[in-house]
Amino acid sequence: MRKELLDLAEEVEEEIKSQIDKINKDAMYNSKKVIEAFQENRVSDIHFNMTTGYGYNDIGRDVIEKIFAKILGAEDSLVRNQFISGTHALTVALFGLLRPEDTMLAISGKPYDTLDEVIGIKENKSSLRAFGVKYKEIDLIENEFDKEKILQTLQKEKIKLVHIQRSIGYSERKSISIRQIEEIVEEIRKVDKEAIIFIDNCYCEFVERKTPLEVGADIIVGSLIKNLGGGIAQNRCIYSWKE
Q1: How many CB atoms are closer than 10 A to CB 195?
Q2: d(C-alpha 18, C-alpha 27), whole Å
Q3: Is 161 helix (H, G, I), strand (E, B) or coil?
Q4: pTM here?
Q5: CA-CA distance, 2 to 123, in Å (whole number)?
Q6: Contacts of residue 218, Cβ cutoff 8 Å, sequence gap at least 6
Q7: Rounded distance, CA 112 to CA 125, Å?
Q8: 114 within 8 A of 149, measured Cβ to Cβ
Q9: What whole-number distance in Å separates Cα of residue 9 and Cα of residue 183?
Q10: How many CA atoms lie within 13 A of 73 on its CB side?
Q11: Tell me: the pLDDT tens digits for 92-112?
Q12: What are the pLDDT digits (tens) for 176-218?
C-alpha cells in the first residue's frame, strides 16, 4: 500500500477521533445498561430452557420482556418470535391503536415502502385506509420537522396517532435524533396531550443514550433483525410502550 494512503488514513482517523470517542462512550454506556438489566432480573440458565404446551408461564419470555422494558425506558414490552419482521410488528401496533375514522399523521414524510399497503397508500382491501382510518403526511424541511405545519394540523383536526420514522429508510435524508424527537414531542403536547406519539425505531436502538420513550414518546416499534439482534436474530421483533 502506498505511503500516501497510509498517511491519509491517519489524517482521517485523527479528524474523526472525537466522534469515534463519543460512539465508544455511548456503546459502553448502553452496554452497562443492558448488563444491569440482566442482573436486576436475575437471568440464569433456567430462563433459556424450552417450554411445552401453550407456553403459559414461560419465564424466559417473561424475563426478556422485562429486560427490554428496562433497557428502553418502557412500562412494558412484547418480544415475540410471532412477529416475523419489523413491518409485521409495525402493522400489528398500528392496527391495534387505530380505529375507523381515526387519523394517522406521519410527520417525518412517507414511511417505508413496505408500509404502503398497510396504510393504504397503495391499494389494499385489508389496509388501514380500507378499514376507515385516514392518513396524512408532512414532509421534513432540511432534515427538520415542519413544526408550523404540524401544529396547524393538530389544531385544525383531531389526530389519533402521530407517526415518526427515525431511520432514513430508502430516502436520502438524515436519521432523526433524540433531540429532534424531544423538541417536537414538547411542541405536540402543548396542542394535544392525548395524541399517541408512535416511533418506528428500526435501526436506531443504542445509537444514542436515551430512547424516544424517555423523552415523551408513547410507543416504539423495532426489529431484532436490526441493532438489538446484532443483525443475526431472525424473525423476532419488539414493541414497547408507556401508558
Answers
A1: 18
A2: 14
A3: strand
A4: 0.88
A5: 56
A6: 196, 197, 198, 241, 242
A7: 19
A8: no
A9: 37
A10: 15
A11: 999 999 999 999 999 999 999
A12: 999 999 999 999 999 999 999 999 999 899 999 999 999 999 9
